[in-house]
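Why run this: before we spend reagent on co-expression, it is cheaper to look at a predicted model of the complex and decide which construct boundaries make sense. The entries below are exactly what would go into the expression plan.
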Amino acid sequence: MINGLIYVYCISNSHPELSRNTLFKGLQQISFRGLNVVIRMVSESEFSEDNLKRNLTDLAWLDSYAREHIRIISLLMEDCTVIPFNFGTIYNSQDSLLRFLEDYYDSLIEKIEYISGKEEWGIKMYFNHTMLIEQIDELSMEAADLEKQIMASSPGKAFLLRRKKSELIESEMNRLTKSYGQDYFNQLKKISEATMLNNLLPKELTGRDDTMILNASFLLYKDKASDFTATLNFLREKCVGFGFDIEFTGPWPPFSFISIKEKV
Amino acid sequence: MHDNVIDRSKDLTILELLDRVLNKGVILTGDIVISVADVDLIYLGVKLMLSSVETMEQLKSGQAIIKK
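The model came back. Tokens follow.
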């Protein structure tokens, strides 16, 4: 019988060898009808509801624990199929955890089968406003046509046409970023089994000068990963000169693809 | 073959980490969980921290070691 709070990392389909890595020190496993739950006993002083809430406001604490959470699950993913849990999922007792496993058993088994052999990749696409404007005549036929007209016009008419062009540039930029974002998303989707769109993050959070236009996760078969990254590199090279940029991260445990609905 | 994300986990920014492990709606269960409201507060904290140029440079270079 376990006393204290139970911190859950993930559920796996088999029993991983926990002695093989020092990071696994202190981890325990609970088996339930073929499911294996990887846990750690944690103290009330850090993880009780109130204390956890307080610790979450301490970014150094959060950073180190969130990093550990990811590393442990990612390492386990090398040996087994894992259902990753959100950071900071705590059960008060083993009974309570077992009750969850019992209640959601069918759904958990279904998820294990679904994500077996797959992994998650994240991509974030950005565009640089200034760079795109500089290239607008190359990217937009309408803008290029208007530019030709401006060059051939009298100063008075050119002035009016320039005003018209600045409006056109705004709408063309909007169209271009959407069409690039959508096109790239579609090409990556072809290689993937499932996709998930995430919230676009504001500049205050990304710390970048350019604007995020796509934040998406892709679930793909592990043997498609090289296809996926090759496609990404190809796409990035194609658009980087126009002021676009693509960041990608992975492989991740399938965090974005295993939501399990709360039973009513 | 590709490197696993853990080999580069030192280089991941706190934002990448949180974007993955916090608000994915992974499993809404557990006796204690981090709520949506908590997540909003965390991001507010990250925003405040990022508004300090010094820490932002550290984060950009991947050294998310935060001075208290």
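Residues 9 and 59 of chain B are 13 Å apart (CA to CA). Chain B has one domain: 5-60. Bring this page to Monday's planning discussion.
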